[in-house]
């Protein structure tokens, strides 16, 4: 018997994220705010050159900038 998340075409990590979000949304207002803060992720990355770490950047904002640059560049 296959797992329901597999049958739906989800990865296990995505299944857990959806389940956690459903649980957080079902909580009362006070605990919900605390749980939602715990559910946020802040990913950072740094480019390494010549064995040295460069500036650490926020992944979400870097991704938004790159997408905006790509969108403006494709209109030329």
Describe this structure in words.
The chain is an alpha+beta fold. 61% of the residues lie in helices and 17% in strands. The chain has four helices and two strands, in the order H-H-H-E-E-H. The protein has helices at 4-7, 12-26, 29-39, 59-74, and strands at 44-49, 52-58. The protein has a two-stranded antiparallel sheet. Helix 2 (12-26) runs antiparallel to helix 3. The longest helix is centred in the C-terminal third of the chain and has 16 residues, at 59-74. The protein is extended and about 45 Å long. The N and C termini lie far apart (53 Å). The mean pLDDT is 82.
Key attributes of the depicted protein:
single chain, 76 residues, alpha+beta, two-stranded antiparallel sheet, 4 helices, 61% helix, 17% strand
| Spans of at least 5 consecutive residues with low confidence | none
Average pLDDT reading: 82
- Helix fraction, binned, reads 55-70%
C-alpha termini separation = 53 Å
Rg, Cα atoms, Å = 19 Å
Main β-sheet description: 2 strands, antiparallel
In which order are the strands of the major sheet placed?
Answer: 1-2
What is the beta-strand fraction?
A: 15-25%
Number of strands: 2
Total number of helices: 4
- Based on CA inertia axes, which overall geometry fits? extended
Structural class: alpha+beta
How do the helices and strands follow one another from N- to C-terminus?
Answer: HHHEEH
């Amino acid at each position: 018997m296959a797992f329901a998340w597999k049958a739906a075409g989800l990865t296990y990590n995505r299944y857990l994220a959806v389940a956690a979000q459903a649980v957080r949304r079902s909580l009362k207002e006070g605990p919900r705010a605390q749980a939602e803060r715990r559910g946020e992720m802040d990913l950072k990355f740094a480019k390494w050159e010549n064995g040295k770490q460069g500036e650490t950047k926020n992944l979400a904002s870097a991704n938004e900038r790159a997408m905006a640059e790509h969108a403006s560049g494709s209109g030329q």
